[in-house]
Amino acid sequence: MAPGMNMQGGQSMQMSGMTMKGATDLVVPMEREGSGTSWQPESASEYGAMHVTPTSMVMTHYAAFPRYVETGSARGSRRVDAPNWFMIMGSKNVGSNAQLGYHAMISLDPLTENRIGYPLLYQTGETAYGAPLHDRQHPHDLFSELSASYSVRTGARSSAYVYLGYPGEPALGPPTYMHRPIAYDMADAPIGHHWQDATHVTFGVATAGYDFGHVKVEGSAFTGAEPNEFRYNFDRPHLDSYSGRLSWNPNANVALQISNGYLKAPESFDPNVDQHRTTASVLYNKPLGYESNWYAGAVWGQNRLTDGSPTSNAYLLETDYRRGGNAYYARFERVQKSGHELVLPSAFVAGTLFDVGSYSFGYVRDLNHQVNGTRVGLGAQITLAPKSTGLDPYYGSGTPTSFQVFLRLRPTATVMNGMTK
Predict the structure, then answer these.
(1) Cβ atoms within 10 Å, residue 280
(2) Which of 68, 84, 295, 298 lies at a CB distance of 3.0 to 4.6 Å from 64, suitable for a disulfide?
(3) Assigned domain for 7 exists
């Protein structure tokens, strides 16, 4: 391991005296940048391959989870699938005080999950075959992010930037779940996804931000509609919605944000209903040594609909602990969802809010320990899904119990110009 190149130590990487700058914002460490323009703890572990020159940087990352899932409920299902994603980010200096950046994310979910997505009890949002989805996580688009940014230094520790995405992610919510440290071991989306971080695939985003060093303010104009069910196309941009976010990273191990946004007709099956969304999050990461790390996160999201429906909230706690070739993770959620959102067959409960939960516990054991290439892990997860008794006629009595067994494929420790960090 070369000095100054540890991706798990919470320090900006250096190579031959070069500090690794963020792709979106040239005054922050690259490790601080999450999805879109969000911030994560800069001490969080990174896995991938990086190529660095004195004026440019390119980094790639990927993950795939071939698995068998059994949801254990009257409204659930079982299947073999493989959630997956591939990400690339890079930057290029433009003079001494400016930088161009880019991000791309590609997912083969349209192939591995097909149009209806994978089984996930109480999950809601988006459509398939013209009908709203329920108890399934929708597949992500083939092109989930294609964005470019321009940042310019305005002081010793300050900068301004613009970010354009088609698709991209507006300044709303925490780093999306696929970019938080738990995603190195857990494939499932949160059931509060559409209260907290679902705008990470938005067809049309323009964001402007100002970074004061440890504090950042930013605002976005974006397309409010969720992606349509045709996952290979590019939806028409409208920029009919807006959001603002305040981020604060007081040190290398902590990332906090609060954000608010207005979403114009996000769900196609409710074209006359808009949303006001508010989120807040605290993410904490603690490096414990080489290939040893502890992460914990708390996220809250709230949706207020313009049709007079009751305001609903989603709460999430998650943690991931990795040491050597073992990883242990857990996620605890409580979400308020209406009968309409759950697509219940009875019109009498359409406006009723029900409490649903998802308590997941998982373990992954690495099967190989090679320095370069793909790290393969064998994992298992069990999920308890408590619910309001009013949902018993639809989901069955008691607490549904889901399980899955999976392989986890991701890169090993980050490799820069062929050298392992």
Answers:
(1) 18
(2) 84
(3) no
